[in-house]
Design goal:
Length: about 500
């Protein structure tokens, strides 16, 4: 086995936190190596050291093709043949597809200007390899999130890398786009490119990985060929618990009382890349967890944004039988509706603010006296939620941008749960969250339902929807494709309703 990369005894210490403790990782030529672990296990820190974002503590070494190297920055990493695709998009929306792919390495013509014909031609060929029918002159801002992620992949491939790190590459992709990506990974393997694949989706690991390394609490737990691992073994190594414990035992807390009623909900204006939502009618009961499922682009998020006052609508929304006038998110919040958005970084958090400050954004008035904020009361309440949600942070004064993705998501949920709500809408509650943290989020949603809230869970993870929902509302092409009770909701019936 010819090694492209070997990381030996890599440690990293931040103030008050030992993020990595003597971690080892070996990547062979043409190998897909899955890197697994809970959020906060050290996966992202390890990759930032590999790409020169962070220096490792003294004592650790990185070997590339048998040569010890010190990687100083991202550009140096690329020069050494290492390219990374981050979970969060880094595309420049006001540039074209071709300009994004060749950013900072544009082909220069004899006149000293960018040779756009050559750049667009090369971009078009790269897009063809990715099975993407996109004009290279298209502005990235006009593309869906899934297509933007594919542009990131094209950009990484364009560096002629020998090692590509993919951090949650399918988090924003549709099923078809995911299948396309997996085909691309197989082609990259044939070109002897080594791939570090980070994902919380276990099915993907067993479909494409040759080997898997598990990190837990900043340490290497094990590294095994994929043929020697089962789902149960992998989950146990990641979170030290059985797979059967992830969703917990189901208990319904739904009552006969209709809390919120939606009738004939129709979007007034439909913008580009927005589903045409029309004639949506459903009831949400007190103590019920209503799962909402649909394929990408079906209109799930648009429906929830409309209920939360983000979009103008025709139709009726009632709470306890009373007709609501929801013109904006403030009026929705006044009626006791909360919304955990799909995009935590763009819409759920203020990344430059502290954990404590983000937590209190939805209910800051509770800690105010004479126009001053009582930081002691605010901090005390925040610490309660940090403990109950097991948010991994060395302090509530830590900037939320420095938390892992899963812990950032928990902060978003905490800020809404702390507010006095009647209805909580949660869009993709466990996207980017590890298997252990998923169980904690599911348990939290169950506790909220037990307390009498109506909970709407929008998810593209069908096993999640089936495991935690009292009923499943299926959306197809902006309309309701079916409503299934827990007993009726099987994978086959839900997918049939979603696809027609």
């Amino acid at each position: 086995m010819e090694l492209y990369l070997e990381m030996r005894n890599i440690s990293k210490t931040f103030p008050g936190v030992k993020a990595l403790d003597s971690v080892n990782l070996r990547i062979a030529k043409g190998e897909v190596h899955a890197l697994c672990g809970e959020n906060g296990a050290g996966k992202s820190t390890l990759m930032k050291i590999l790409t020169g974002v962070f220096p490792a503590d003294p004592g650790g070494t990185i070997w590339i093709q048998g040569r010890a190297v010190e990687i100083h920055n991202l550009a140096h990493a690329r020069a050494l043949g290492i390219s990374i695709i981050y979970q969060e998009l880094s595309t420049v929306e006001n540039l074209s597809v071709a300009e994004n792919i060749f950013l900072a390495k544009e082909p220069i013509g004899r006149t000293g200007f960018v040779n756009r014909r050559q750049m667009n031609g090369a971009a078009k060929e790269m897009l063809r390899e990715l099975h993407l029918d996109i004009d290279p002159d298209t502005l990235v801002a006009e593309l869906s999130v899934g297509h933007q992620q594919m542009i990131e992949i094209a950009k990484a491939i364009s560096y002629d890398a020998t090692i590509i790190v993919m951090d949650e590459p399918t988090a924003s992709l549709s099923q078809n786009e995911t299948e396309t990506l997996i085909d691309i990974i197989r082609k990259l393997k044939q070109r002897n490119i080594g791939i570090v694949y980070i994902t919380h989706r276990l099915d993907e690991i067993f479909e494409i990985a040759d080997r898997v390394t598990v990190l837990r609490d900043g340490r290497t737990i094990d590294s095994l060929p994929i043929g020697e691992v089962t789902r149960e073994i992998l989950v146990r190594k990641m979170v030290d618990r059985e797979l059967s414990q992830l969703y917990g035992e189901y208990h319904s807390h739904s009552t006969d009382k209709v809390m919120m009623s939606v009738r004939g909900l129709t979007l007034k204006q439909v913008a580009a890349h927005t589903a045409k939502v029309a004639d949506i009618s459903f009831d949400l009961h007190q103590g019920e967890i209503l799962g909402v499922f649909g394929l990408m682009g079906a209109g799930r998020t648009e429906i929830m944004e409309t209920i939360f006052g983000v979009r103008a609508y025709d139709g009726e929304i009632r709470m306890d039988g009373k007709l609501l006038q929801i013109h904006d998110p403030a009026s929705a919040m006044a009626h006791g509706i909360g919304f955990v958005t799909e995009d935590r970084k763009a819409q759920g958090l203020v990344l430059g603010m502290k954990v404590r400050e983000n937590f209190s954004l939805t209910h800051l008035e509770e800690y105010c006296r004479l126009e001053f904020v009582s930081q002691s009361r605010e901090g005390e309440r925040c610490r309660e939620f940090v403990r109950s949600l097991a948010i991994k942070t060395h302090s509530i004064e830590q900037q939320v941008v420095n938390l892992s993705g899963g812990n950032q998501q928990k902060v978003v949920i905490a800020k809404w749960v702390a507010r006095h709500l009647r209805v909580l809408i949660v869009d993709e509650p466990t996207r980017g969250i590890d298997v252990g943290a998923k169980a904690e989020v599911h348990a939290l949603l169950a506790r909220l339902a037990e307390q009498g809230l109506g909970v709407i869970v929008v998810s593209s993870d069908l096993p999640e929807v089936l495991a935690i929902s009292d009923r499943v509302l299926v959306i197809r092409e902006g309309r309701i494709g079916g409503t299934l009770s827990r007993e009726e909701a099987t994978r086959e019936r839900v997918m049939h309703a979603a696809t027609g």
